[in-house]
Amino acid sequence: MKPLQCLPGLIFAGLFAAHAAPADLAGWKLVWNDEFNGKSLDPDKWSFEVNAEGGGNNELQYYVTNNVAVANGFLTITARHEVHTGPEGTREYTSSRIRTLGKGDWRYGRFEMRARLPEGRGIWPAFWMLPTESRYGGWPHSGEIDMVELVGHLPAQVHGTLHYSGPDGHHRYRGTNFALPHGKFADGFHVFRTDWEPGVIRWYVDGQNYQTQTNWPSKAGAMPKPFDQRFHLLLNLAVGGGWPGKPDATTKFPQEFTVDWVRVYQRDEK
């Protein structure tokens, strides 16, 4: 979830279904999922990151464990405007960041989330992936797959992005955005999907393919490197940072990132 500059836009015209019809799953097998039907976060699937590092983006939150709730079939990550002091200092906001590192990772697959995204300047929800083992070196050399990001001052737009290092070793990214023809992502739930296969990665919103990437020249080596290793999932709600900017007087707190389910499929080898 590194900072981005202006990505090229892509807007779909015509009618748009807030709840897409079930997609064709022929050839895919469900290998991991969390429907959030319990009363707390499943420790066999997720762990917390607790820090005030700012995610490498000068974010303003302290990530804590208090800001996650599981109830009524939903996971809710809440960002609050509250002072928190911990071993890494004091921050004016709190939120949470969870990941499947050491509990679930995959090389290739179909990754889906049904969620309602928050809004407001300085609000930055994300559903993304990092390499479990950085075989090609530290960030960005081993890659990052951003499946869904939203900056809260643009509440009708989501982004999908690849991060990696170019042949010269410098940070590169490829991606675009998808804008709703009406409404915003805080109005209701949408299904976000990324299909990652050797040499091709596709992004979807409610079943509509809005982006396909097939070429990312990288210092790591020939295609599809660095996206040929096992990656794990992350969910977080950041506050501030170089891309969304700081919250202002129009930003309302608390803000909630609400997830109905997360599902991972892989190609059925039968």
Q: If you had to describe this structure to a student in words, what would you say it looks like?
A:
With 270 residues, the chain is mainly β. The protein has a single domain, classed as Jelly Rolls (Sandwich), CATH 2.60.120.200. The chain has no helices and 18 strands. The chain has strands at residues 28-34, 47-49, 61-63, 68-71, 74-86, 89-95, 97-99, 105-106, 109-116, 123-131, 144-149, 157-165, 171-179, 190-197, 200-205, 208-213, 231-239, 255-267. Strands 1, 3, 4, 5, 6, 9, 14, 15, 16 and 18 form a 10-stranded mixed β-sheet that branches. The chain is globular, with a radius of gyration of 18 Å. The termini are far apart. The relative contact order is 0.28. Mean pLDDT is 92; it is low at 2-22.
User: Per the principal axes of the C-alpha atoms, what is the gross shape?
Assistant: globular
Percent of residues in helices comes to under 10%
Number of domains: 1
Helix and strand element order: EEEEEEEEEEEEEEEEEE
N→C terminal distance: 36 Å
Cα radius of gyration in angstroms: 18 Å
Structural class: mainly beta
Task: Compute the average pLDDT.
Answer: 92
* SS strand fraction: over 45%
CATH class: Mainly Beta
From the 3D structure, determine the CATH topology: Jelly Rolls
Beta strand count? 18
Per DSSP, the total helix count is: 0
Poorly predicted ranges (pLDDT <50, ≥5 residues)? Answer: 2-22
Largest sheet: 10 strands, mixed
Gross CATH architecture: Sandwich
